[in-house]
Amino acid sequence: MNDTPVSDIETLLMACQFGDGQFPSGAFGFSWGLEGLVTDGLVGRGDLVPFILGQVDGRWSGFDRVFVAHAHDGAGDEAALCGLDAGVETYSLASAQREGSRRAGAALLGIHARLGTPGAAEFRKLVSAGKTPGHAAVALGLVLAGAGLARGPALALSGYGFVSGLTTAAIRLGIASHIDMQQAISAARPVIAALAQSPVLPIDEVSSFSPLTEIAMMRHGARSMRLFSN
Amino acid sequence: MTVSTEVVGAARVGVGGPVGSGKTALVERLIPLLRGEGIDLAVITNDLVTKEDAERLRRSRLIDPERVLAVEAGACPHTVIREDPTLNIEAAERLDAQFPGLELILIESGGDNLASTFSLDLVDYWMFVIDVAGGDDIPRKRGPGIIQSDLLVINKVDLAPHVGVDLDRMVAEAREVRGGRPVVLTNCRTGDGVDGVVRAIRDAVPLGRQTGKSAGSGSR
Ligand SMILES: Nc1nc2c(ncn2[C@@H]2O[C@H](COP(=O)(O)OP(=O)(O)OP(=O)(O)O)[C@@H](O)[C@H]2O)c(=O)[nH]1
Ligand SMILES: [Mg+2]
Question: Does any CB of chain A come closer than 8 Å to the CB of residue B83?
């Protein structure tokens, strides 16, 4: 395949680097409701594939994906990014979800600012100054745009990160094996691929429907035993 | 690409070591001594399954509860201090922003094994706490925590006679595997020896951070 343009290979490598579970962005500290569902016996062994597909459909597709896409488009436009950020804050129901998203966003902006990714340090300053919350989806969209990743690959990376974060949490919660994890990611891959290339809703049509995980996150803060931040 | 060189804040000192070796007990003993020297202090804990250590420190009244932050490690105590210290770094920067003038942040790792080490992007200095009840052969096992830490603390010396540990031999072997780098003995029940930990920190760690270094190893 020596006729493949260099830029495609670079895109692939960039996606490998920033989508890698080893990329230091604090993702392993969050379970986004899964820990609570497992604790309450609502998700267990054998449930991983339907759970992941349900989360991709109910949460990532209509919510995270839309914010990442608009933040990618709006990279460099401070007012647009802050507007999106306010949207995530408003539409995230559980405080553990909002706080987790802010902390994950801060970690992502921190590492990209240190790596010199264009746009990261500027937006991080606004967050540090308390001018905007700095949610993960907005941070991801803007840093991937800054790094030079086109919107499609950026959305693919977002979907992959969403799924890999939940599946590795599932392993650490003891409800999945390494093989279960890979099977779940494989099951989600075509769905993510299709969504990464399909039109993105206008921001005022953003939606999410995942009531059990949201309730699980609402209950999370009060639990005394917990491995994850949400 | 430009490289960020900002970041001015408190010095950061890591406290790592196996489960139950006395990390929180040591932090509880260090707080009054460090504050007694007029040091503006805060603490981050990386509890494994509960917020117990953070709550214990907050309830202790040794320090303003707002100055104690808990960072959940998602069952990965070593990841959060080494491979991906970003959550701890962000927590430290939050403390820096919230308490201008902050000079020192103690970061207690979740209990781990002898191989755990701290990223030098996260801390300026770190100690590894083991206890005599773990056996006097621990230093000989040469884990990276034992070898690479800036300071090795051997805690619970009061238990040595009860668990058949030859303390002199344990210390000699610890010094040997560490190539003569500092080893301190403590009893965190009584506070004996903890002043040695304070001196080691004071000798090695300039308080506060003057300027950020450029990105790369040792920077943050
Ligand atoms: N006899 C004796 N007991 C000690 C000493 N230091 C701590 N302990 C006891 O050892 C137990 C564990 O101490 P912690 O300070 O909670 O240990 P830790 O390393 O923070 O534990 P994790 O955070 O769970 O890994 C407690 O019961 C302490 O009271 C000591 O010097 N002597
Ligand atoms: Mg402890």
Answer: yes
